[in-house]
Specification:
The complex is a heterodimer of chains A (160) and B (745). Chain A is an alpha+beta fold and 160 residues long. Chain A has a five-stranded mixed beta sheet, sandwiched between helices. The longest helix of chain A is centred in the C-terminal third of the chain and has 15 residues. Chain A is globular. With 745 residues, chain B is an alpha+beta fold. In chain B, α5 crosses α6 and α17 packs across α19. The relative contact order of chain B is 0.12. Classes of the chains: A alpha+beta (160), B alpha+beta (745). At the A-B interface, α2, α3, α4 and α5 of A face α1 and α17 of B.
Chain lengths: 160, 745
């Protein structure tokens, strides 16, 4: 057994030191040490994206991400998107346009959309499909999620 | 302003997009243990011995076997055949045998792997054909969970009067619900306080009844609480009773809270799936395209225990003749036992299977008499006043032809079909367009709703807030939001003043399960009635006039509560006037009403890789009044995507009665890259007995995609395709056979 490691990182803007087995899944550390339960486990094998978080702005499946790799990173979970009680435009759009149904894939989907819009503020339909390809949803057929992301992009661009 | 017909924000939407929504795995109680299940390694046999491996601190574990069950060792549902834990004999692979719990989650998983169950194997029955052949009798006297026979007119005379008779056999595979949140439960149990479970589930009172019998406790000593539920699709209809029982047994024995969360592999391998089916059709038709006889033999594989198979079979049997009128019909429906994990509820509940066979067959019959698929169907659609195969006179206004017209128009069907037919046979990418016409009965089949006698309640508080109490669960489909709309419109109040009480059997009445496309139409109507009851009560007390403001309503509530105490109205289900079903004769009004639909799929087929891509999808349906346009469209789109998966990629690979591909890696559901644009159209014909005229919607979109897609692939390739999922491998085989057929006619 390896000794626990101390990992310095920022989670949702706050600097912290996380402790655990170097191969502990970031998913478990977030849920159990930090009680950030908005990050969900859907498959535990990197297929579904329900556990996706942003690590230095990049979408990663936290079920496949060992704690050791978090050293020096900035991690954003779904809990980190709201600013002063205001929803992120992507969150607003998911509520207004039917992007969330059962809600279990929603945190990962929202973060995937946030990562996409950071890189491409005016994504094409194909950009959206590719960006979401690693996030499975069984409820929506994805159509309202696409719509939500288009609306969020419009909202972020401001009034035309 | 009324909210019905408008898309108000999803009530729990904010909690879901911020991650604050609480699912069962987000709960933890002090001193909690983690539970797991030791399962049968083989499909059938006698348990000889259980071996506990070395190196595990076994005395630290709570271990539960069949001997620890306080009440009866069968899961209460339709037939008392399924044990909570196997006792001596196992009848399917993955059957639960022992339960383990320990405070260390990793250790409990390690311990499970150190247990070896030695079983003397018995010959298993693994297919429908083997079960029907009865070489081994594995259930009852004849391997049959249930059989139905529907007869209308005289099929023999119908065949005698036919110009052409077309036969065909069709098969559909098992399908995994694959909700993204696996099954999970947290339980507390002791002899004094009774049993409480929190979980991911569709039907709180199913779980309640099962726990009452498991522990032989009075009803008020069992409490079932639904947590936010990450998808169900039928997969959390009956199965959660088993997991709740297991968690509660461990809690009962250990005296500690016990959490059981299945991992994905266990959830896929051990829990229910859609019933595989085999359907044979023999159809008589005149040369001008009139149906004269339909003889249908529909068989579903129920797996090792009865679970819900009789009612799945019933819905599938009644839907087997589809939205057509034929004077002579015979339908034989059978649900058979096999030694695979029990199959169960999955969106559509038997209807997608029998409708796949029918709608694929209708294309073949049309081709046999030289009619276009749309024209042949049009000549046979059931109309208002016609009688269905089970003797239901269609009193509601029906116009399937109008739906067909709209679907043909929206998809540009005729022009596309002609253009695709002109693609040269040697082209690598071929295209096709296909359609399916179908219906889906809303609510429980036959007398089911009478037996349920559901009750919903609405309360108004002294501060003028309205609370809705039902046992119907929000599982993503929008229960919270549409109930809010229905109650707020009935009371002429803002939706913001309405709250939904969390389904908790200690708080809410039994308004029945969240299944069968019944939540909006049946329970929504009860919510509407109860809300109107509040209004009438306040009016009757002289506290509220005909028109009022929210402030007037609040004053009236405050005054009422001050004078008379809590203000609560309940509504109980009564069948609409004239709706009758005869269980003995299996005849009558099978459903109060139906949703009707015509779907069109356009596909590309790569003849080098045998991949099929759905390029465009048009879904036209009549569902009564649309309560919430965005949620309703979301139901259709999600159902279509599940239908695409079932048609093309979702293959459960069986090996010795076990699911060999119990992983998302190789059980393939549609991703964002696989779904086409799905264009959804609603026709609204208000139903007199639904809230604001609404009917059921949830299951309907599962019925049409598979036959529409396979019909399109058949046009694209010219192949005679009879089996789904139509994976590339299966399509390659079918096309190879066609080529062989051309070479060696």
């Amino acid at each position: 057994m390896s000794d626990p490691v101390q990992v310095r990182c920022r989670v949702n803007g706050t600097s912290m030191v996380l402790s655990g087995h170097p191969m502990a899944r970031l998913l478990d550390v977030l849920r159990e040490q930090l009680h950030l339960t908005g990050t969900r486990e859907g498959c535990g094998e990197g297929e579904c994206g329900a556990c996706a978080v942003l690590v230095d702005g990049r979408l990663v499946n936290s079920c496949l991400f060992p704690l050791l790799h978090a050293e020096g990173t900035a991690i954003t979970t779904i809990e980190g998107l709201e600013q002063g009680g205001r929803l992120h435009p992507v969150q607003e759009a998911f509520v207004a346009h039917g992007g969330a149904q059962c809600g279990i894939c929603t945190p990962g989907m929202v973060l995937a959309a946030v990562a996409l819009l950071a890189e491409r503020p005016n994504p094409t339909a194909d950009d959206i499909r590719v960006a979401l390809a690693g996030n499975l949803c069984r409820c929506t057929g994805y159509i309202r999620i696409f719509e939500s992301i288009v609306r969020a992009a419009q909202a972020q661009a401001g009034p035309a | 302003m009324p909210s019905i017909g408008h898309s108000i924000p999803r009530r729990e939407g904010r909690a879901k997009v911020t991650g604050r929504a609480r699912y069962v795995d987000d709960l933890a109680l002090p001193g909690m243990l983690f539970g797991t299940t030791v399962r049968s390694p083989v499909p059938r046999g006698r348990i000889r011995r259980i071996e506990y491996g070395a190196g595990v601190p076994w005395p630290e574990f709570t271990i539960v076997s069949a001997r620890d069950i306080p009440g009866v060792n069968h899961v209460a549902l339709i037939t008392d055949d399924q044990p909570w834990l196997a006792d001596g004999q196992v009848n399917h692979a993955e059957e639960p045998i022992l339960l383990l719990a320990h405070p260390d989650r990793e250790l409990v998983e390690h311990a499970r792997r150190q247990i070896t169950v030695h079983v003397d194997p018995l010959p298993p029955v693994l297919t429908i054909e083997d079960s029907l052949a009865r070489r081994e009798i594995i259930w009852g006297d004849d391997n049959l969970f249930k059989a139905f026979e529907v007869k209308r007119g005289d099929v023999d005379a119908g065949f005698a009067g036919a110009d052409v008779i077309v036969e065909g056999e069709y098969e559909t595979g098992a399908q995994e619900q694959l909700y993204i949140e696996p099954n999970g439960m947290l339980a507390l149990a002791d002899a004094v306080e009774g049993v409480t479970v929190w979980g991911s589930l569709q039907c709180p009172y199913y779980v309640h009844r099962a726990l009452v019998e498991l522990f032989a406790l009075p009803g008020d000593k069992v409490r079932v609480v639904q947590m936010e539920t990450g998808g169900g699709f039928g997969g959390k209809e009956e199965y959660p009773s088993i997991l709740a029982g297991h968690a509660a047994l461990l809690a009962w024995k250990s005296g500690r809270p016990v959490k059981m969360i299945y991992d994905r592999a266990e959830d896929m391998a051990a829990t229910t799936k859609r019933h595989p089916s085999r359907t044979r059709h023999r159809t008589g038709v005149t040369s001008d395209g009139r149906l004269t006889a339909m003889d249908i033999d529909y068989v579903i594989d129920g797996g090792a225990y009865c679970t819900l198979s009789p009612v799945v079979l019933s819905r599938g049997t009644i839907h087997a003749a589809g939205p057509y009128s034929c004077p002579n019909v015979r339908i034989r429906g059978r649900a058979v036992a096999t030694n695979v994990p029990p199959h169960g509820a999955f969106r559509g509940f038997g209807a997608p299977q029998s409708l796949f066979a029918l709608e694929r067959h209708m294309d073949r019959v049309a081709a046999a008499i030289g009619l276009a698929p749309d024209e042949f169907r049009r000549r046979n659609f059931i109309r208002t006043g016609d009688t269905s195969a089970v003797g239901q006179v269609m009193r509601e206004s029906i116009d399937v032809a109008a739906l067909l017209d709209r679907a043909l128009d929206a998809s540009d069907y005729h022009a596309r079909r002609a253009a695709f037919a002109a693609i040269p046979a040697g082209a690598r990418v071929r295209k096709g367009i296909g359609l399916a016409a179908f219906m889906h009965g809303a609510g429980f089949t036959g007398s089911g709703e009478d037996h349920l006698a559901s009750v919903a309640a609405v309360e108004a508080t002294a501060d003028g807030r309205v609370r809705i109490l039902t046992s119907n669960t929000e599982i993503g489909q929008g229960t919270n939001t549409i109930f809010t709309q229905i109650a707020s419109d009935a009371l002429a109040l803002s939706p913001d003043l309405v709250e939904i009480v969390q389904p908790d059997t200690s708080l809410v009445p039994n308004s029945g399960p969240t299944v069968a496309s019944r939540t909006c139409m049946v329970v929504g109507k009860l919510v509407e009635s109860a809300a109107l009851g509040i209004r009438r009560t306040l009016e009757g007390a002289g506290l509220l006039g005909e028109s009022y403001s929210a402030a007037d309503f609040e004053r009236a509530c405050a005054e009422y509560v001050r004078r008379r105490g809590p203000l609560r109205a309940t509504a109980r289900y009564h069948p609409p006037e004239g709706v009758r079903w005869d269980d003995e004769r299996y005849e009558g009004d099978a459903y109060g009403t139906y949703a009707w639909a015509v779907y069109v799929a356009e596909v590309s087929v790569d003849t080098a890789t045998f991949e099929v891509h759905v390029d465009d999808f048009v879904a036209v349906q009549e569902i009564g009044k649309v309560i919430h346009p965005v949620l309703a469209a979301g139901q259709i789109e999600g159902g279509v995507a599940q239908g695409i998966g079932w048609a093309l990629s979702e293959e459960v690979v069986w090996r010795d009665g076990r699911m060999a591909n119990a992983q998302m890696t190789n059980y393939i559901i549609p991703t964002a890259l696989d779904v086409p644009t799905i264009r959804v159209f609603f026709e609204e014909r208000p139903y007199a007995h639904g809230p604001a005229g609404a009917k059921g919607i949830g299951e309907l979109p599962m019925d049409g995609p598979a036959p529409a897609i396979v019909n399109a692939v058949a046009q694209a390739t010219g192949a005679d395709l009879r089996r789904i999922p139509l994976t590339p491998e299966r399509l390659m085989e079918a096309l190879d056979e066609e080529r062989v057929g051309v070479l060696h006619p």
